[in-house]
Amino acid sequence: NVEHFSISGLKMVEGHGWHISLEECAYGCVEKIEFDACMSKVIDGMRMNMENQDGIDIRNGCHHISISDITGRTGDDVVALTAIAGDTVRPGGQLQTTHVMHSDWSRRDRNIHDIQIRNVTAHSFLCYTVRLLPANAKIWNVVVDGIIDTSPVVHDHGGTVLLGEPDSAYGKNYPDGLRFITVSNVICGSKRAVRVSGYLWDSVISNVVNRNPGCPALIVEKPDGIKNVQTFNLITVEE
User: Which pTM value belongs to this model?
Assistant: First the structure.
């Protein structure tokens, strides 16, 4: 619930959960952040799982935020727009919720809009470099530009860019839940390149170089998953 802010110049190592999580924040920037996490850590001689090591999570109610110059690796998504609005109203800070603020959506905004994500040179150990997740909520006016997935050749993780979600435990993916999105200048080095798992309307996907010959540069999972979406300059390397 903060406006006119900046978070800059940090190296964050092995975060216990989300490294940077913003709720209902606006008119700010997150830049020059380096992450180092891999979803586990050796403790007393044993490798232990560490859940939800996202890099940057932009959550419900956030708008007019720029994210740029992000490097390193994370256990979970590197940059995620998680507009998840569950049906159950929980007070802020309850153990069963990942939110600090309350989840009474009659009192606060459930959506995310007007976000820029630029110059990300990083990879996720388990999930995606950039993820847009609307569940019982909507995301619009987002620019994703200049993404280099640095996954090692032998690493087989989730993917580079994930747009939308199928109906799941997170909630319902509205057909118009993801609109006015531009994804451009992406180099993919992971299991999946650009994946439209839910719905995407009125958007552009361009200049994608997919280094994985085992999958297409663009995967659309639903027969009606895209509507009025322009795609061009999508390249997949040959084996």
Answer: 0.94
